[in-house]
Amino acid sequence: MSWFKMLARNKLALIGLIIVILLVLSAIFAPLLAPHSPSEQRLEQALLLPSMEFPFGTDDLGRCIFSRIIFGARLSLLIGITVTAICAVTGVFIGMLAGFYGGIVDEVIMRLVDIFLAFPGLILALIIAGLMGPGMFNVMFALALVGWMGYARVVRGTVLAEKQKEFVETARALGATDLYLMYRHLLPNVMAPIIVMASVGIGHTILAAAGLSFLGVGVQPPTPVWGLMLKDGKGFLQTAPHLTIFPGLAIMVTVLAFNFLGDGLRDLLDPRLKEKRIE
Amino acid sequence: MSLLSIRNLTTVFHAKEGEIRACNNIDLDIAVGKSVGIIGETGCGKSVLGMSILRLLPRNVTTSGEIWYKNQNLLTLTANQLEKIRGTEIALLPQSPSTSLNPVIKTGLQITEGLQIHRKMKPSTARRQALEMLRILHLPVPEKKYQEYPHQMSGGMKQRILAAISITGQPSLLIADEPTKGLDAVLRAQVVELLQQLIRETGASLLLITHDLKVAARLCDEIGVMYAGEVIERGPAQKVLTEPEHHYTKGLLASLPDMGLCPIPGSSPSLLNQTTGCKFYPRCSARQEACRINPVPLQMCNGCYVRCLYSA
Amino acid sequence: MFKYLARRLALLIVVVLGVTLMTFSLMHLAPGDPAEMIAMARYGLDNLTVEDIEQIRVEESLDSPVSVQYLCWLRHTLHGDFGCSLITGDPVMEEILTRAPATFKLALAALLISMLIGIPAGIIAAARQSSIFDYLAMTGALLAASVPNFWLGLLLILLFSLTLGWLPVFGYGGLRCIILPALTLGAGLAAITTRLTRSSMLEVLQQDYITTARSKGLPEARVMYNHALKNAFIPLITVIGLQLGHLLEGTVIVESIFAWPGLGKLLVDSIFARDFSMIQGCVLFFGVVFVLVNLLVDIIYMYLDPRIRFEREF
Asked: What is the CATH number of domain B2-89+173-306?
């Protein structure tokens, strides 16, 4: 548990970790925690201000905003974690291939990365998800397609540096196969930066997914999604601003928590960066 | 007559680990037209002494004591008054020429900007003066070098540019901070010559901070030896470098290659959490019990000031 | 230098080809009959007839294979013919060129705002490290970097338009209209600029040449602005350049919030309307602008850092 102690020393990282844990718990136990059904419409209690019964008030269809935000955490985390995991795994795999084999493989892969980086990712995701039509899967596919390049770059760089080291030659001389080398020697070396990137990446993905929902692309109503709640609240900005304020706050707190966690992990896992900071 | 008188100068760095006394109760005088050398090992606080005079240290540093220059105490001057001293009255020849020039400003401007500000010189006049200076310093094709950026020059040229920067303001005192650090023998000889030329041309006093005893011997009239933030011996260069009184200075001389290459046992003490007694006590071959606890004053002994209870 | 430009242009061509090809394939792989959707958009759901749909399918050559359609589009594009909107029938390029100034205005205003906030805030934070101002600036930057821009936009409207009544909710033209959208778009970049200016200045201020500059008796302002800032700008420009792409991305959302008549809104509307030729036009335009902006940033970078400038020249 020593890493936990180190993380705890960084106050912001600890706050981030606590918020992330709370989010995950509320996503898992949403049915138990939510005071009301997230989808039950009762028009006679529409647009109520926050009260004891409805901590964040109700929306235009009389649904409890607090409950919808708790259920919304499910989808946000699901999208954020799944997409980031796909991106990280794809990126590690592709970056490893490029760095390990070099030559033409590296050239082709890195040009592909250049091409993907040369077009604004969110716009690409918007076009893909928008054209593929509504649905959570389409959003996830679109976000994954534009999110793997950073991981590939970092992994390639690390592998290129590690490959030069003696232990790789020694292992090879002892008859290690490429796969064994990559798995046992190179993968552990890229894990630290990847974990840091992924932690921040989950926040970014949640933000991007919410942005797409806000534009009306992706998951469709009546599913409780933060971005969609904001989009619906937009029309009631003047009369019932709580429809807008609370879902946005949920997104911001989540993104902030993953950023804090990522910063803390960076200090923890990447001693090189840490030294630089102390200087 | 003294140009610069330092009295009780104490410079403290406030670090996370505690207070670091880089300079401790230093007294020093530099007479008009004379050269004073400060020698000592790396980390003894000699560079900090030079930086303290011009108040060029970071913000987490407090400096106490007095530094009198032409009837002004430099430590009490406002930022504005200090700017008028820097460069034109007291100039600095910094160490490491490779990092001391701004990489994105043409060398010519780096030489003349001080003149343009302090002497209200027109750019053309300043340029003429700077070119003249570069010619005196034997910089090849000065007109061309004037237009170039630092990365286009060799280390020796950069050194000359820095020398030009330091003397274009015609200062009365030049502080040279480790000018020969990390240089090979040929370049070192060139720098010594350059410094000799500088003080000859300008008549300025020189405060030479160096770990190189030979360079100090060539250039200085007087020598101060620093150890762990204190001046432990001070006197005429000839005397200090041939018949020193302090055991540390003796050890330092004995460790020179042509004196037998015989190092002082142990290592310099940390400047953190200092003891009250003699700083050299743990390494001294002639130590007594009294050296450990009692503060040691700087006292006159055979024409030198020495900070040792049992010298000679 | 020439080689470098050639490489960049080659990348530009590949990018545009790749992205348009992908968009093209997606449009045809996506569920739903494109001809039917276009007919729906043109004539409305009630007046829809099978004949109309078939006519559109033939007119827009939607009946031929995707590859043929793509090559056909490519040939027209290379001849400078970008086609007409499938919905309104207006020429695509004309529409894009009418909309582009609004987006550029917005992006430039956002860039300007983020520089005007970020650079001074970063310099002051660095000059007074660990002061109250430093902490305030860093906290502000942290919040601004994490706030979703679509939410920030709504909050700004709520505060400045609906509550205080100082600025219009939406609209185009005039300085008052652009303030809120530009602030929304530029907030994230302002945060990044503040942080980076600060860290870059702190790093530069420790360099030996700053001591040299001070030892010459230069006023602190000159040390800061001429000697330190000029060096601190080099990494700053690179990162800001890389962030310009994000600024372009942001226009899609910000223009939708503020009903700003630019390319971002055009793209979103076209996607929902399935106006294929308009989407293709926007993609082409965004791709070209994006690559050119990055190229421009590289050139500025070279100009700022004489070390790189000379390396490339020789």
From this structure: 3.40.50.300
